[in-house]
Write a structure and sequence with these properties.
There is one protein chain. This protein is an alpha/beta fold. It has a single domain, classed as Response regulator (Rossmann fold), CATH 3.40.50.2300. The protein has five helices and five strands, in the order E-H-E-H-E-H-E-H-E-H. A five-stranded parallel sheet has the order 2-1-3-4-5, with helices on both faces. Helix 1 crosses helix 5 and helix 2 runs parallel beside helix 3. It is globular.
Length: 124
């Protein structure tokens, strides 16, 4: 049995096509995944602390990913590893601030869904 079968992921992504690609690649690796498309739903699920990993897009409706990240780290102290997934080219100081709170930062355009799944698989 594959270790990934016990890892629960919350995928927070509002682009339907990207969501479908990521879900397929992550499920193929054996992860258990829930997905939501907005920041309010993400906070509601993430603060239950049932997830091992949260993949969080920055540009999502409801509450943006930066607000969600700050809430999860400052107000809910979730134990899940939080990986920021974005296509934004952030100013260095903003990116540094995000990376300080998150456990990883990836540019979606630079990774195929399979590469994302392999990256997630290596997270302990």
């Amino acid at each position: 049995m594959n270790n990934n079968q016990h890892k629960k992921i919350l995928l927070v992504e509002d682009e339907f096509f990207i969501t479908e690609l990521y879900l397929r690649a992550l499920r193929k690796k054996g992860f258990i995944i829930n997905n939501v498309a907005n920041g309010l739903e993400a906070l509601k699920l993430a603060k239950t602390d049932q997830y091992d990993i949260i993949i969080l897009d920055l540009m999502i409706p409801g509450r943006d990913g930066i607000d969600v990240l700050n809430d999860l780290k400052n107000n809910y102290n979730v134990k899940a590893k939080i990986i920021i997934a974005t296509n934004l080219e952030e100013r260095k100081e903003i990116k540094d601030s995000i990376e300080e709170k998150a456990d990883g930062y990836i540019i979606k355009a630079n990774l195929t869904p399979t590469e994302l799944a392999e990256f997630i698989e290596k997270i302990k």
